[in-house]
């Protein structure tokens, strides 16, 4: 999947969990929970949403890497980027 | 001497017989005995940097904060609120507040502006301690409505119209003499939800520290020097009673992780910090269980001696998983905001009966009662029968009131008991088994959420005519908050409006209290007086036959007859 499509899926799943969040100014390198109000249950629902939307199974160990937009794109495109772009919450 | 007399004698009391102060027993007592160099806290921040504070350092810093409050004009009995994540300053400020004999109330940082505003204004908070980020996000806009709030102390960057925590602490002396403190003096305020009406502020006294210590030793096996981890946030009662007070009083070293849940991270904490005693919750355990036992076993958690759980029923499946993941039995405990300390538990030296909570703690007389027993007062039911769990009044950590609401306080007592609202049964061996709540409270991720507070926020949306909120069974978090909404004329029931209302609720309540799911329903079931019947909504959700509206549902606060 092209990166722009993947980006749309990720943001769509995030918006589904937190419809009130303004995602337009989201810094892709910083964690979601630094920028918008989500709790750990939201986070889990977000991961489940991505699994369903993409028809993939995300390994438990990869969950923390999904905590930023860059991290999501790296994990979901299957091409890990530099570790400092995937901050752990 | 009775059990509580002995438990009380095990503490020191303020020097010169000047009473009991929680902060003295938690901190200064150890320093006076020469244990000031023992580590009290190991704080792990989001980036895994560890900051330790010894008992001596906590004593001096909390002294500084008590002086800060005194200089701000805080008097005994004034309400001091803290809104922050699990950072060192929260713990220091909490203990300093108790030293200054002000009443401490910590708020969960995930609360949205509405629950924060309601709690601050209801208790007429004089001072709020928070962080620069939380101040900007939650407090700044509310400030004009909080007329009793004189001072805000901000941790972090300089913020207009607030005091800087760092500046005030730097200027304050690290010597402070705790003034005489009556054991019955109010120390802690914890808000808890109701099915009707706004959240209730349960008050606890300094004397509760006797129960904090005794129960932590008995039910959690806490001893001086143990490395201990409590997952609860100080915004909830467990995070204060067993995340702050009890481990310090016992002389343990408490691990505090300010990060969010992440299975690998949690196992890493257990492994790297050699956690010996761990107090967690079924929701956390289910989230760990989802990752499988293999992940658990890839870490070395062999230092773990005792695992205890609180907040919701510990199902047998979790006990079995605990055995495979940690080679340990998970021991259940039961208590509430109102009881202040653990009332029922399976202690470390007792074999776990999967599904049962355990027996009443020493010094606690627990019964299963019917509210309308013989003579119309609560009285025990037949052995083995289902009924409401009731605790005989008089234990040290029993709550002393709901802030400003004496009628609601007396309503939960009867026949010499505190009535818990939890339906249980007791087996022939004296073990208690949880059945369900007697009321419509929602148990979500271990937090008790009152449907009324959620409904009130939803009703503020211009499109919402009526709303009923229930707990929907959830495999991970026990129950999730679900709202049924009917619309005012002229509003179209569509996906966009649904998202808008959900976002509206989340902006006001914060993610933890807000519904996870909203559905439109134009046929909300009502009592004859027009009250939405949550029980019928719940029955529909569960797919069971609807109770007869005319006979089964009576308004809680008013008789319909």
Give an account of the 3D structure.
With 89 residues, chain A is an all-alpha fold. Chain A has a single domain (3-85), classed as Orthogonal Bundle (Non-ribosomal Peptide Synthetase Peptidyl Carrier Protein, Chain A). Chain A has four helices and no strands. In chain A, α1 crosses α3 and α1 (3-17) packs across α4. Chain A is globular, with a radius of gyration of 12 Å. The termini of chain A are far apart. Mean pLDDT of chain A is 86; it is low at 80-89. With 561 residues, chain B is an alpha/beta fold. Chain B has two domains: 3-326, ANL, N-terminal domain (Rossmann fold, 3-Layer(aba) Sandwich); 442-552, GMP Synthetase, Chain A, domain 3. In chain B, a hairpin with a 2-residue loop joins β24 and β25 (447-449). In chain B, α2 packs parallel to α9. The longest helix of chain B is centred in the N-terminal third of the chain and has 17 residues, at 55-71. Classes of the chains: A mainly alpha (89), B alpha/beta (561).
Radius of gyration of chain A: 12 Å
CATH domain topology of chain A: Non-ribosomal Peptide Synthetase Peptidyl Carrier Protein, Chain A
Secondary structure tally: strands of chain A: 0
The shape of chain B, in one word, is: globular
**Mean pLDDT over the full residue set of chain A:** 86
Name the strands of the widest sheet of chain B in spatial order: 2-1-11-10-12-13-14-15-16
Total of domains of chain B: 2
Count of helix runs of chain B: 18
- As for the number of domains of chain A, it is 1
Number of strands of chain B: 28
Determine the mean pLDDT of chain B. Answer: 94
CATH superfamily of chain A: ACP-like
Multimeric state of these chains?
heterodimer
SSE order of chain A, one letter for each helix or strand: HHHH
User: Main β-sheet of chain A: number of strands, strand sense, barrel status?
Assistant: none
Query: Structural class of chain A, please?
Result: mainly alpha
Q: Would you identify the CATH architecture of chain A?
A: Orthogonal Bundle
Percentage of residues in DSSP E strands of chain B: 15-25%
Structural class of chain B: alpha/beta
Largest interface: A-B, 20 and 33 residues
Main β-sheet of chain B, in a few words? 9 strands, mixed
């Amino acid at each position: 999947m092209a990166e722009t499509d993947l980006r749309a899926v990720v943001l769509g799943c995030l918006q589904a969990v937190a419809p009130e969040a303004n995602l337009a100014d989201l810094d892709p390198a910083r964690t979601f929970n630094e920028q918008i109000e989500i709790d750990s249950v939201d986070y889990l629902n977000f991961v489940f949403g991505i699994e369903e939307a993409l028809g993939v199974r995300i390994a438990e160990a990869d969950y923390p890497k999904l905590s930023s937009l860059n991290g999501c794109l790296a994990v979901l495109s299957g091409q890990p980027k530099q570790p400092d772009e995937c901050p752990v919450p | 001497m009775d059990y509580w007399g002995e438990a009380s004698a095990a503490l020191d009391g303020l020097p010169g017989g000047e009473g009991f102060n929680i902060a003295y027993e938690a901190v200064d007592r150890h320093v006076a005995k020469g244990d000031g160099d023992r580590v009290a806290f190991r704080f792990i921040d989001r980036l895994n940097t560890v900051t330790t504070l010894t008992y001596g350092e906590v004593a001096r810093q909390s002294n500084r904060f008590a002086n800060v409050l005194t200089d701000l004009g805080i008097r005994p009995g004034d309400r001091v609120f803290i809104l922050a994540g699990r950072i060192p300053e929260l713990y220091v400020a909490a203990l300093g507040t108790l030293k200054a004999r002000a009443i401490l109330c910590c708020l969960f940082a995930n609360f949205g502006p509405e629950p924060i505003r309601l709690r601050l204004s209801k208790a007429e908070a004089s001072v709020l301690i928070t962080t620069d980020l939380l101040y900007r996000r939650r407090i700044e806009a509310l400030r004009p409505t909080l007329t009793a709030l004189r001072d805000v102390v901000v941790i972090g960057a300089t913020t207009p119209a607030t005091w800087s925590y760092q500046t005030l602490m730097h200027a304050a002396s690290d010597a402070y003499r705790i003034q005489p403190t009556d054991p019955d003096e109010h120390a802690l305020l914890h808000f808890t939800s109701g099915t009707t009406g706004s959240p209730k502020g349960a008050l606890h006294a300094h004397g509760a520290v006797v129960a904090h210590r005794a129960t932590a030793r008995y039910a959690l096996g806490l001893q001086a020097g143990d490395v201990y981890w409590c997952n609860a946030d100080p915004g909830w009662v467990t995070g204060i009673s067993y995340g702050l007070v009890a481990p310090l009083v016992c002389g343990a070293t408490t691990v505090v992780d300010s990060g969010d849940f992440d299975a690998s991270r949690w196992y890493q904490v257990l492994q790297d910090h050699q956690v010996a005693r761990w107090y967690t919750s079924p929701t956390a355990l289910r989230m760990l269980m989802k990752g499988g036992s293999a992940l658990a076993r890839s870490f070395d958690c062999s230092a773990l001696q005792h695992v205890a759980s609180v907040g919701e029923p510990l199902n047998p499946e979790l006990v079995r998983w605990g055995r495979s993941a940690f080679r340990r039995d998970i021991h259940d405990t039961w208590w509430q905001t109102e009881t202040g300390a653990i009332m029922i538990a399976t202690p470390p030296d007792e074999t776990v009966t999967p599904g049962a909570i355990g027996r009443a703690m020493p010094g606690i007389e627990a019964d299963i009662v019917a509210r309308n027993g013989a003579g119309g007062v609560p009285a025990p039911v037949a052995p083995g029968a289902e009924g409401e769990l009731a605790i005989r009044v008089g234990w040290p950590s029993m709550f002393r009131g709901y802030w400003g609401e004496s009628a609601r306080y007396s309503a939960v007592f009867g026949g010499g008991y505190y009535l818990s609202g939890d339906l249980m049964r007791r087996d022939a061996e004296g073990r208690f088994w949880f059945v369900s709540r007697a009321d419509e409270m929602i148990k979500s991720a271990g937090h008790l959420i009152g449907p009324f507070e959620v409904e009130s926020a939803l009703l503020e949306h211009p499109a919402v005519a009526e709303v009923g909120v229930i707990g929907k069974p959830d495999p991970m978090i026990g129950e999730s908050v679900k709202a049924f909404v009917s619309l005012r004329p002229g509003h179209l029931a569509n996906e966009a409006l649904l998202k808008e209302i959900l976002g509206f609720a989340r902006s006001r309540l914060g993610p933890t209290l807000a519904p996870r799911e909203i559905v439109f329903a134009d046929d909300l079931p009502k009592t004859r007086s027009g009250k939405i019947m949550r029980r019928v909504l719940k029955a529909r959700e569960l797919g069971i036959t609807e109770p007869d509206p005319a006979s089964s549902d009576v308004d809680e606060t008013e008789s319909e007859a």
